[in-house]
Amino acid sequence: MKGNVVDLAVGVIIGGAFGAIVTSLVGDVIMPVVGVATGGIDFKEMFFALKGSYATLAEAKKAGAPVIAYGLFLNTIINFLIVAFSIFLLIKQVNRFQKPVVAAPAAPTTKDCPMCCSSIPLKASKCPNCTSVLA
């Protein structure tokens, strides 16, 4: 197996576990604070029923009514933004610790004339400046 395949597999597993942690962070820590800051609004319960009227989202779902649960969608957006920002910071740190790739030096295309020290092409057999014959 190539190293990149193993790295990808580890990344997917860690990403799934990290997603669960961030989901809990958003649902259990951030959104209650946002709810208190906005006057006690519970974003999980924000919905719009397309048929009928229901007091809670659980009632609407139990009745099988079509609903637009925009509060849950808002939680998901915040969840995504936190995951994306965390992965951005992680990748930035990983790239900082990696050694920079140094390109191999290019093969020389010229040489110096032993008589006049001018630069001439490698294939030259005679110096165009001092006309000396090169070995």
Verbal overview:
The protein has three helices and four strands, in the order H-E-H-E-H-E-E. It is mainly α and 135 residues long. The chain has two domains: 3-97, Orthogonal Bundle (Non-ribosomal Peptide Synthetase Peptidyl Carrier Protein, Chain A); 108-135. It has a two-stranded antiparallel ribbon with strand order 1-2. Helix 1 (3-37) packs across helix 3. The longest helix is centred in the first third of the chain and has 35 residues, at 3-37.
CATH architecture heading of the largest domain: Orthogonal Bundle
Q: Count the strands?
A: 4
CATH fold annotation of the largest domain: Non-ribosomal Peptide Synthetase Peptidyl Carrier Protein, Chain A
User: Which ranges are low-confidence, i.e. pLDDT below 50, for 5 or more consecutive residues?
Assistant: none
Strand order of the largest sheet: 1-2
Number of domains: 2
State mean pLDDT (0 to 100 scale): 84
From the N-terminal CA to the C-terminal CA, the straight-line distance is: 51 Å
Estimate what percentage of residues fall within beta strands: 5-15%
Helix content percent band: 40-55%
Provide keyphrases for this structure.
135 residues, mainly alpha, Non-ribosomal Peptide Synthetase Peptidyl Carrier Protein, Chain A, 2 domains, two-stranded antiparallel sheet, 3 helices, 4 strands, 52% helix, rod-shaped
